[in-house]
Amino acid sequence: MVVENLEMFLLKAKSKLHVMEILPYYSLRCCIVTQGERSFFSLSKNQMQLVQDATVADIVIEGTKEEILELLNGTKMRDVKGLAFKGSFRHFLLMDSLFTLVNRSERKEVS
Length: 111
Prior knowledge:
The chain has one domain (1-99): SCP2 sterol-binding domain (Nonspecific Lipid-transfer Protein, Chain A, 2-Layer Sandwich). Helix content is 36%, strand content 23%. It has helices spanning 2-14, 17-20, 65-72, 89-103; strands at residues 28-34, 37-43, 48-51, 59-62, 84-86. A hairpin with a 2-residue loop joins strand 1 and strand 2. The radius of gyration is 13 Å and the shape is globular.
């Protein structure tokens, strides 16, 4: 279930140009771990995709299935209390921005 939601998240991210702009030119390998299951994906300005047979990651995000699904649906990383994050602070900020921007509503509020 997490893999399917991750695939949907990556498809949404690819369709948003403002999201692609914040990604690095180099490939950043990420791993989401939930209940012993590992899902690897790579991010770069040129592509975002799931990766099969990966063993090493620059970023590891670990949590329960519910926490990971919250994250993939746009909850800020700091608001999901049970998450464990391994990576640099710069990577944390990048991933937090990515999860937030991909799921932000396309509508603008009229005041």
